[in-house]
Amino acid sequence: MIFSDFESVLYMDADNIALRDPSVVFDSALWREHGAVLFKDFWRSSAAPDLFDIFPDLAHHNGTHETGQVFIDKPRVWPALMLAHFMNVNAHAFVPLTVNYMGWGDKELLPRALQ
Question: What is the pTM of this model?
């Protein structure tokens, strides 16, 4: 997303199928207010308790995010995108915190950076 030439980005996994035109999200109140729209996943958070010692403001969130579709307005959330990039570059430190040392994946880094 950060290397895209577009300011407004819809990231959609290749295995996602839009049932309707997803561009309506770009006109939504959530989009106008936050500059990013993510969707909750079905699973409870698997974040390590240590994550909330580092980021205490995140303690209220007890879920995961579906990262197969993400709407981002890059100019408005650029600092969060840079934080997510930093977290990905330093995945050895941040990924285990978001998955409680029970696997490997970066799906919660962008949502955590945006919070």
Answer: 0.82
